[in-house]
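Why do we bother with a discrete structure alphabet at all? Because it lets us treat a fold like text: something you can write down, compare, and reason about line by line. To make this less abstract, here is a complete entry for ACT domain-containing protein. Read it the way you would read a sentence in a foreign language you are learning: slowly, and without expecting to understand everything at once.
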Amino acid sequence: ADVIHLAQNIKLGLRPRPQPQPSQIKKLTPISQIVSRYYMRMTTADRPGVLAQISKILADNLISISSVIQKETDVESQKAEIVLMTYPAQESALQQALQEIEKLEIVQEIGNLIRVED
């Protein structure tokens, strides 16, 4: 009977809509609970100890650095561009760390923050 009903609806141009089953309904994970690797680019003062201060904040928030690059800058500007890649970390921990990093006097700008999927 269901097949005949389906065939009649198709003949009439009616397309059946799939009904979601309870097992198909997915809960969205809050963004704060997402775990991802992150790419961060920031402009900082070019002086000793800058990377140590940033690394400590990340470590205090259980965020581990996968790689770091400090790009050479003009000596006169006394600015450094630091690019960090993290190991997987929880979004809420990263946001907390960023708030702390932004308060540092040595950080002039956090230019990019990008979630990276493996």
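What the structure line is telling us, in plain words: The first strand starts at residue 35 and ends at 45. The chain has one domain: 31-116.
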